[in-house]
């Protein structure tokens, strides 16, 4: 069932004819794509269970990655004026939704609704906006329900691959892949639950605050967080290795397939050192030499020095899809942690260089919350 047909069917069941315009808006908000918030610690700043709306004048616009932001002057009932910080999606997600830097401008009067900030902070994660001319715009992109997202719709007659350079590889996985297949938010998605912390891991986790997430200041997402990204990846078979280019943050990765070992003096990095081999229709990838970091948006810590990550990319019978499983071995945890995702071929994949990430908004936040000195003293 295509999206338009799906929405019409839902409307006919749940919505009165006279109220369908507003009912459609609610339905759109409820199924709006999640990747808009995948890039930063959304749960640490916003409460998805608390919705609200504000009306006022836009006084500042930052149309930059990691997410576009707006400042809104909102008049209170007593006549005083509050300034609200309105955050929205990454520029990749906004582009997919038809949103541009000109969609909302300084001086414009708007009504905005979305998820409220924790602790009654004057923050809102935008889910939609009504402009002064009465038009409504949603910030999250196209309608996607779980069934449509996880269904492979392309046929085997479509050619997606570039070239198989190494004849020893049993399958040609080159070309673009959509990672929105079987996506879930990369926050608290690791199994098992509850998280099996070691004593040191729990100490590090408890000592970390949301504003200390390095991703907010445009540091690389790195492994294993980027494994959970919904944005496309582009694979090139370079013979001795695969080159994987993740659209998110324009991040390159090399998976060495020629049996080489890491140099004894190889420094750690955000993507580490990856080697791979085929086991039937499964590509097995092992990564070491990772920098210390975090495993997800809830900031589960990663030691880096002794972290080992094993991925299994299992091709479907098509092979237009693959199931990807990532297992993390780290001294901060008493058991391995597991993350699962999927990838599919698609004609609608757009592999383009994203706009660069600008940490300006994060440093403004630190300045306004009197944390800027603490940050630089870390």
> How many structural domains?
2
Structural class: alpha+beta
Beta strands, count: 17
Order of helices and strands: HHHEEEHEEEHEHEEEEEEEEEEHH
- How much β-strand is present in the residues? 25-35%
> What is the overall silhouette?
globular
Radius of gyration: 22 Å
Mean pLDDT: 83
Low-confidence stretches: 1-39, 141-148
Query: What is the number of helical segments per DSSP (H or I, 4+ residues)?
Result: 8
Strand order within the widest beta sheet: 7-8-9-10-11-12-15-16-17
Classify the helix fraction into a percent range: 10-25%
Quaternary organization? single chain
Largest sheet: 9 strands, mixed
End-to-end Cα distance: 53 Å
Account of the 3D structure:
The protein has 378 residues and is α+β, with helices and mostly antiparallel strands. It folds into two domains: 32-143, Nucleic acid-binding proteins (OB fold (Dihydrolipoamide Acetyltransferase, E2P)); 149-372, no CATH class. The chain is 16% helix and 30% strand. The chain contains eight helices and 17 strands. The chain has a nine-stranded mixed beta sheet, with no helix packed on it. A hairpin with a 6-residue loop joins strand 1 and strand 2. The longest helix is centred in the first third of the chain and has 12 residues, at 3-14. The chain is globular. 32% of the residues are buried.
